[in-house]
């Protein structure tokens, strides 16, 4: 089996002065808000509040993660059950969470029976999921980042649809619907990859959306994208490439970005010994950029870590030390959700074989065992428990207060 690369995301620290760039609201309103504003979370900047975090609040949150040495779990979801499990977990571990929609996950929320011509189901489902989060996130009392996952060149109409929704939301509220989008153009030549990213970042910056871009290739297979045959040299990003992207994207006024760089990371879970992680690539990239810029900051880039499932805690924490502010989690939470449902069925197996009749008697009704909420809740609880463990690995526990 050929395993590929790890992806990290970096964000532009320097380029971000969103008070100006994201400020569509009047300065008088901003001043009034500042005057009465109190911190919602003792350990976080005052901009970060419970609920969906966008714009300056998001860059402040990611800068806090980088400075404090933790990474936020970025979790793929497929509906309200997994979305709520994410927020439940975040409330339990006392940290932020990134709720992540894939194109397929968005389509699933719309409904698999709906024609996905022109990505219409993916767009509608992703927006519906985002609106669910906007409506309920505050009740969980944690910062929630609304993010979308890998979008290759052919899938850009999906992002175009989401961007339109964010622009409409921004016109009404001064905030985008989504906090950030990933564009994964790593299949394209570097110059084309970054040129397309730059053109999108120009649009994102106007409404306060952060860009996550990918350099190199994350190996393995996830959500219909199979990179398990990619040449291994593409699995390791070069510092020069990271600097090129940083330099280009920093030219966008108010632009904020993170970088998914490849350092041997792989989507999916594999037997030990099959993944050759080289997170030193991240350190080398930071050093290279710092020298080029001549800046004080020894971690100018914010990286994100794709394909972390199955990585050792040592490797994960080493990568966090190199400026990783988010790690994607999908495979492990997929298993956890199933394992919760599996455990429920095993525990109540004899009560789940018909609507009537169980070990307590042939006439006994089983309605209170086969109500779908019970099995789904078992999945939610198992997923939330797995995410608390992930947050421990990412040092994201008790980072709010
Ligand atoms: Zn990924």
Automatic annotation (TrEMBL):
Its cofactor is Zn(2+). It comes from the Eukaryota. Pathway: Carbohydrate degradation; glycolysis; D-glyceraldehyde 3-phosphate and glycerone phosphate from D-glucose: step 4/4. GO terms for molecular function: fructose-bisphosphate aldolase activity; metal ion binding. SUPFAM superfamilies: Aldolase. PROSITE patterns: ALDOLASE_CLASS_II_1 (PS00602), ALDOLASE_CLASS_II_2 (PS00806). It catalyses: beta-D-fructose 1,6-bisphosphate = D-glyceraldehyde 3-phosphate + dihydroxyacetone phosphate. Residues 1-15 form the signal peptide. InterPro entries: Aldolase_TIM, FBA_II, Fruct_bisP_bact. Pfam families: F_bP_aldolase. GO terms for biological process: glycolytic process. Its EC number is 4.1.2.13. Keywords: Glycolysis, Lyase, Metal-binding, Signal, Zinc. Belongs to the class II fructose-bisphosphate aldolase family. Catalyzes the aldol condensation of dihydroxyacetone phosphate (DHAP or glycerone-phosphate) with glyceraldehyde 3-phosphate (G3P) to form fructose 1,6-bisphosphate (FBP) in gluconeogenesis and the reverse reaction in glycolysis. NCBIfam families: cbbA, FruBisAldo_II_A, PRK09197.1. This is fructose-bisphosphate aldolase.
């Amino acid at each position: 089996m050929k395993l590929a690369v790890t992806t990290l995301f970096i964000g532009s620290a320097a380029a971000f002065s969103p008070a100006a760039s994201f400020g569509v609201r009047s300065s008088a309103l901003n001043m009034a808000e500042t005057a009465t504003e109190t911190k919602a979370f003792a350990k976080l900047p005052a901009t970060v509040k419970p609920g969906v975090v966008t714009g300056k609040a998001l860059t402040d949150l990611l800068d806090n993660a980088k400075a404090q040495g933790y990474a936020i779990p970025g979790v793929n979801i497929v509906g309200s059950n997994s979305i709520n499990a994410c927020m439940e977990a975040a409330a339990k571990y006392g940290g932020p969470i990134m709720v992540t929609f894939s194109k397929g996950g968005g389509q699933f929320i719309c409904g698999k029976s709906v024609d996905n011509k022109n990505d219409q189901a993916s767009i509608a489902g992703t927006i519906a999921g985002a609106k669910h989060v906007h409506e309920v996130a505050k009740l969980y009392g944690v910062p929630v980042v609304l993010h979308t996952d890998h979008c290759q060149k052919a899938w850009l109409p999906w992002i175009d649809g989401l961007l339109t929704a964010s622009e409409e939301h921004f016109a009404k509220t001064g905030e985008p619907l989504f906090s950030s989008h990933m564009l994964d153009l790593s299949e394209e030549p570097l110059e084309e990859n970054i040129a397309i990213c730059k053109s999108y970042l120009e649009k994102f910056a106007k409404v306060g959306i952060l860009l996550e871009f990918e350099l190199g290739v994350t190996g393995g297979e996830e959500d219909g994208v199979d990179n398990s045959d990619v040449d291994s040299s593409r699995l390791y990003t070069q510092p020069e490439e990271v600097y090129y992207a940083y330099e280009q994207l920093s030219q966008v006024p108010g632009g904020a970005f993170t970088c998914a760089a490849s350092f041997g990371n792989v989507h999916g879970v594999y037997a030990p010994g099959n993944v050759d992680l080289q997170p030193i690539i991240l350190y080398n990239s930071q050093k290279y950029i710092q020298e080029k810029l001549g800046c004080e900051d020894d971690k100018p880039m914010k990286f994100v870590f794709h394909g972390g499932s199955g990585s050792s805690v040592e490797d994960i924490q080493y990568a966090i030390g190199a400026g990783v502010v988010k790690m994607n989690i999908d495979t492990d939470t997929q298993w956890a959700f199933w394992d919760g449902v599996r455990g429920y069925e095993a525990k109540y197996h004899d009560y789940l074989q018909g609507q009537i009749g169980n070990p307590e008697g042939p006439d006994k009704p089983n309605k209170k065992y086969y109500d779908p909420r019970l099995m789904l809740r078992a999945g939610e609880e198992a997923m939330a428990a797995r995410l608390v463990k992930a947050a421990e690995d990412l040092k994201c526990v008790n980072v709010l207060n």
